[in-house]
Amino acid sequence: MRRIAALYAGISHQNRSWNVPKYRKFISEIVYIPEMTETSLQDFDVVLVPSRLHAGLLQKIKPWIHAFAERGGIVVVFWPLAGDVVPEQRWEHRPTNFWWWLDKNAKSGLVLDRPEHPMFRYLTLEDCTWHQHGVFYPNPDTAEKLVSIENDGAIFYIDKPASGGTWIVMSLDPEYHFGSYFMPATERFLDGFFPYIAEGTV
Amino acid sequence: MTDYRDIAVLDSGAELMFESGEQSHYATIDQYELGEADLRPYICLIIGGSCDQEFLTKHRDIVRSFLDEGKIVIFGGHLFRPWLPGGSDFIPREIRSHADYHITIVQEEPFFAGVNPLELTYRKGVAGFFARGHHPLPEGAIPLLTLPDGEPTLYIDRSTTGGTLLVSSGATLLGFDRFEDSTRPITGRLLRWIREEYARLQRSTSENEREEVRG
What we know:
The complex is a heterodimer of chains A (about 200) and B (about 220).
Chain A: E1 4-8, H1 12-19, H2 21-24, E2 29-32, E3 46-49, H3 55-70, E4 74-77, E5 91-92, E6 110-112, E7 135-136, E8 143-149, E9 154-159, E10 166-170, H4 174-179, H5 185-199
Chain B: E1 4-11, H1 17-20, E2 26-30, E3 44-48, H2 53-58, H3 60-68, E4 72-76, E5 91-92, E6 104-105, H4 117-121, E7 122-123, E8 126-127, E9 133-134, E10 142-146, E11 152-157, E12 164-168, H5 185-214
Parallel strand pairs in B: 1-2, 1-3, 3-4, 4-12
Antiparallel strand pairs in B: 5-9, 6-10, 7-8, 10-11, 11-12
């Protein structure tokens, strides 16, 4: 099992998502961001960066997260976040499609770009489907898009940039919704995603 | 719109466009600057559910003293650390059907006269918008809204401190002015209530001080 650090900023939804026993068992340590130092991530293989972080805190720890990736670490980034966070970030805002599923015969508009990818042994398209916060246009030379909006950008991709490490980036916020007791699909997502990042082929 | 610069919103600092709009009429304090902030200009402090409760626990004395000056604190979110006077940890409701989210108005004043409780519970037919659990009532507090088994999702507490707490297990009530239904007046009523409540608190604080001088 990979050693996973879950970053935490004292927010109630993070507290629930990281501490509920079925996810806590995958997490080696919950790291309180305001007390982080540049050595806080040195013992881990994976770091989880939650959505909606305080912009100043995020800027403070960004060099440490990038250094962690450059040493070969896996960085998981949930979204929305303020500012530049991931390498070569190309993100575009899209109005959040909170209500698409209320329309008759609605489609979420999401497609799997690589259904054969090992992650989809753990997750289905439905597990990744609630609403997304914008789209990414990752570097096609280094990144694999896994889930996209049809004829638009990616909402989930894995990048192995020249600078090092693996970046798993999504415009999804499952830890926010599960931790807020809202949106059941986000629980199915985390049920599959935790075992995937703990042991799956990234 | 009227300026409400005597009301301070503790800003979670996420700087996300879809969340910042409703804060613009109020003063804002970055949550991590609470320790250094001069709170004297403010009559009310509004704290949302995306704030750092570890940090607030470290600075709980600031929240307590603010209240004891005869001021108001409004919290909306899920408590899980002991920083809010009178506050207990959030208890989620076990959900078997959407009816488990139904809100009952047990006290119409000062915010909910004429408000349809179904419009608090549902948005576009989806249940659970107002609250998905509750905080147990502190002694002497008044419940305003409840879940189906009487769990208070919004209460006013004038007993625990020298000020007034308004505690919601959902949102803070600041966002209703963007809706076009019976819930729309709630935010305006809240803002008027803050001023009236503050005036009442300050009157009773100065009466108590006169008592002490006489005693």
